[in-house]
Design a protein that fits this description.
With 258 residues, the protein is α/β, with parallel strands linked by helices. The protein has one domain: 3-Layer(aba) Sandwich (Peroxisomal Thiolase, Chain A, domain 1), CATH 3.40.47.10. 26% of the residues lie in helices and 24% in strands. It contains 7 helices and 10 strands. Helix 3 packs parallel to helix 4. The chain is globular. The protein starts with a strand and ends with a helix. The mean pLDDT is 89. This is Beta-ketoacyl synthase N-terminal domain-containing protein. One of its GO terms (molecular function) is acyltransferase activity, transferring groups other than amino-acyl groups.
Length: 258
């Protein structure tokens, strides 16, 4: 069974991204109509006028640009921690198109904080089963949303890319999602989630902190979703370097030692 390692984690820079549509455009009016159909007329429009209006397709394009050249990816997953502000975008299909090579595409929604853990479990399972060699998991969260009772709107837009494969990196443990508080593994360094209403704060924190952390120290990524009642964690083992290429013994002594 092949090992599944976190080859790369990237918090996608979004500061230079432009709004997908202007606040006074026909696209904005359509967005308002669609939103009122779900939230009711009390939603108003102030939330749209003051927002960034970065849609999931915008985040996907920014992620693909920021990632640069990649080894072949044959499985692409998106995990949306919030609804998109537009209903006509297909972020998973767009990600598959931008990656090239016709990867299998899956999307995870409606799971809040648990979505990234579910996506990692599916990706790792497909790799271990031999159905894929390398997977890109893209976590998406956008803040262009009306106020809703009981829902904490994210303070900012965010996207985090997680590349899984057989190369160098930290081996991924089994992602765990439960309804009761979990006993996390002992001896691992905890990565504390960023807050500000974010449901992917554990992963933005990991992307920021990972370069400075001891590569020989196991890491614990843990987060709770108080709205949905999920408790989640996953263990990342110490960093494994690039596996040495297999060398065929050249003489009888080497063959005996092998």
């Amino acid at each position: 069974m092949p090992a599944v390692r976190l080859e790369r984690v990237l918090s996608v820079p979004l500061d230079g991204e432009r709004a997908a549509f202007a606040a006074d455009s026909p696209e904005a009016e359509r967005t308002l109509r669609e939103t009122r159909a779900v939230y009711g007329p009390a939603a108003g429009r102030d939330w749209l006028d003051r927002s960034s209006r970065l849609t999931f397709p915008t985040l996907v394009r920014a992620a693909r640009t920021a990632l640069g050249p990649l080894p072949e990816v044959d499985l692409a997953l998106t995990a949306a921690a919030t609804p998109d502000c537009r209903t006509d975008g297909f972020p998973g299909a767009l990600l598959g198109h931008l990656l090239g090579g016709h990867p299998t595409v899956l999307g995870i929604t409606e799971q809040g904080t648990a979505g990234p853990f579910t996506a990692l479990r599916i990706a790792a399972g497909r790799i271990r089963a031999g159905d894929a060699r390398r997977a890109l998991v893209l976590l998406l969260e956008q803040s262009t949303l009306p106020a809703e009772p009981g829902f904490v709107r994210p303070e900012r837009d965010a996207a985090v890319a997680l590349l899984l494969g057989p190369g160098p990196g930290r081996e991924l443990g089994a992602p765990v999602v439960g309804r009761t508080p979990l006993d996390p593994p002992a001896g691992a360094h905890p990565v504390r989630p960023d807050r500000g209403g974010s449901r992917i704060g554990a992963w933005t924190a990991l992307a920021r902190e990972l370069p400075a952390l001891d590569p020989d120290l196991p890491l614990l990524i843990a987060d709770d979703d108080h709205d949905l009642g999920y408790h989640c964690h996953v263990l990342l083992a110490p960093h494994t370097p690039e596996p040495a290429p297999h060398r065929i013994p050249q003489n009888p002594e080497e063959r005996a030692r092998a």
